[in-house]
Amino acid sequence: MNIQLAVKKIAKKLGIDLRAYHPSRSESARLGRLLDHYGIDLVLDVGANSGQFVQYLRYVGYLGRFVCFEPLSAPYAQLEQLAAQDSRIVCATRMAIGDMDGEITVNVAANLESSSVLKVLDRHLDAEPLARTVGYETVPLRKLDTVTDNYLPNSSKPFLKIDVQGYEPQVLAGAVDLLPKIAGLHLELSLTPLYEGERGFREMIDLVEQEGFTLHDLNPCYSDSITGRTYQVDALFFRC
Fold first, then answer.
1. What is the C-alpha separation between 143 and 225, in angstroms, rounded?
2. Would you say the C-alpha torsion 31, 199, 102, 178 has a positive or negative sign?
3. Where in the sequence is the domain holding 60, given as residue range(s)?
4. Which single residue of 44, 154, 186, 233 could bond 161 by disulfide (Cβ 3.0 to 4.6 Å)?
5. How many domains does one find in the chain?
6. Containing H/E element for 9?
7. CB-count exposure of residue 13 (10 Å: 0-12, 13-18, 19+)
8. Average pLDDT of each block of 10 consecutive residues along the chain (240 residues)?
9. How many alpha carbons lie under 13 Å from residue 84 in its C-beta half-sphere?
């Protein structure tokens, strides 16, 4: 048996997928190069959870600033701990981001990452039982246009990441003034709705392209472990 294949089989049994690293084909390498190519110097992380995206961008080589927005108390506490270790990470006051200023209730999922303002659909629960709602948190709701002005003066090329489980259109609707200043955009899009009222990926791509962005990359990020069907992809856009 080929030694390389034998090693990969052993790793697979341990839950590890070993792949050769090719800069032109590696998702992380492509992202790092794109951020560097477009001179991104600030990342607005909407739906930061406990800081997974922050840590991923540090891994791909991004050394700039972050401003993180997270509504839920448990992941927000972890986010604060992460920020305490890195002076370039700022945690905005705990809030949800949407298309108006007010208050809103978030459905808290058992796995926290699947939490959403929108009601989770059965197809999502069939694929991921831990997406079930186990509680609720009522938090302030703010538009990005209301809360981002103080973070932008020292940035020439800000980047916006939105991962809010189907609530992305509302976040974009509350960023009318901000979007023209944004150089790049990262969205999680569903190939089939997982939340009640969620818009499809085709509609979302059209919406973003109408704002002057061009699609640069797509990567599967959530699939059904039983059927293999991909439900969500990460979409990366930049202004050209």
1. 36
2. positive
3. 28-98+143-238
4. 186
5. 1
6. helix 3-13
7. exposed
8. 58 62 76 96 98 96 97 98 97 98 98 97 94 98 97 95 97 98 97 95 96 96 88 95
9. 7
* Domain presence at residue 23: no
Asked if 174 and 217 touch (Cβ cutoff 8 Å), the reply is no
- Number of neighbours of residue 21 by Cβ within 10 angstroms: 8
List the beta bridge partners of residue 188: 234
- For residue 240, how many other CB atoms are within 10 A of its CB? 8
Q: Report helix, strand or coil for 1.
A: coil
CATH no. for residue 183?
3.40.50.150
Q: Which two tokens stand for residue 192?
A: 């089939």
Does 193 reside within a domain? Answer: yes
Give me Rg for the CA atoms of the chain. Answer: 18
Instruction: Return the pLDDT at 225.
Output: 83
Residue owning tokens 């509680």: 135
**Would you state the structure tokens that stand for residue 68, as one six-digit string?**
């993180």
